[in-house]
């Protein structure tokens, strides 16, 4: 019985992840960005200035892929690169003013889009669903952290 429960749950989580990704991707595309670009901008908005290595780790992309993504965002005038004063080998990335404006637009479009979805949930089930999502997110973050340490 336990195996059926876990496989059904895993299947539903996989479906949820895929549907969420598709919805996010369409929202980002409407704003003129790839998912990777949008997630990079959102990371910078949330965390401020980050090193290339930090962004690569947060995005789970190798440094060469991240460098290409950042170069495109620099060309668009959305992010800025600067060398770290204490170690010139480290490149720090931050949002430009235009980048902050565009990223806020992405975030607002994303929240509006998902807000429309959440409004369709039964009101009496909302707290249960929200608690479940928070618990699942917490477990997934711990799992990711454990995997990064391996």
Overview features:
150 residues, DNA-binding transcription factor activity, 8% strand, mainly alpha, globular, WH_DNA-bd_sf, DNA binding
SSE order in H/E notation? HHEHHEEHH
Unreliable stretches (pLDDT < 50, length at least 5) are: none
Q: First CA to last CA: what distance? A: 31 Å
Strands in their spatial order, largest beta sheet: 1-3-2
Number of strands: 3
Helix content: over 70%
Q: What's the alpha carbon Rg, rounded to whole Å?
A: 18 Å
**How much beta, percentage-wise?**
5-15%
- Mean pLDDT, rounded to whole units? 87
Shape: globular
* Main sheet specs: 3 strands, antiparallel
Structural class: mainly alpha
Number of helices: 6
GO molecular function, one term: DNA binding
Protein name: HTH marR-type domain-containing protein
Domain HTH marR-type: 1-145
InterPro entries: HTH_MarR-typ, Tscrpt_reg_MarR-type_CS, WH-like_DNA-bd_sf, WH_DNA-bd_sf
Provide structural commentary:
By secondary structure, the protein is mainly alpha-helical. The chain is built from six helices and three strands. It has helices at residues 2-30, 35-47, 52-59, 63-75, 97-118, 126-149; strands spanning 50-51, 79-83, 91-95. Strands 1-3-2 form a three-stranded antiparallel beta sheet. Helix 2 packs across helix 5 (97-118) and helix 3 packs across helix 4 (63-75). The longest helix has 29 residues, at 2-30. It is globular, with a radius of gyration of 18 Å. It starts with a helix and ends with a helix. The model has no long low-confidence stretch (mean pLDDT 87).
């Amino acid at each position: 019985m336990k195996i059926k429960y876990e496989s059904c749950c895993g299947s539903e989580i996989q479906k949820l992840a895929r549907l969420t990704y598709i919805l996010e991707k369409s929202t980002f595309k409407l704003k003129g960005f790839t998912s990777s670009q949008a997630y990079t901008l959102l990371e910078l908005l949330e965390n401020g200035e980050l090193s290339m290595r930090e962004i690569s780790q947060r995005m789970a992309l190798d440094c060469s892929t991240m460098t290409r993504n950042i170069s495109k965002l620099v060309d668009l005038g959305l992010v800025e690169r600067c060398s770290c004063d204490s170690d010139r080998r480290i490149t720090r990335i931050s949002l430009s003013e235009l980048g902050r404006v565009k990223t806020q637009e992405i975030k607002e479009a994303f929240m509006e889009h998902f807000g429309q979805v959440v409004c369709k949930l039964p009101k009496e089930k909302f707290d249960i669903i929200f608690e479940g999502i928070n618990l699942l997110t917490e477990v997934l973050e711990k799992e990711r952290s454990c995997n990064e340490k391996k």
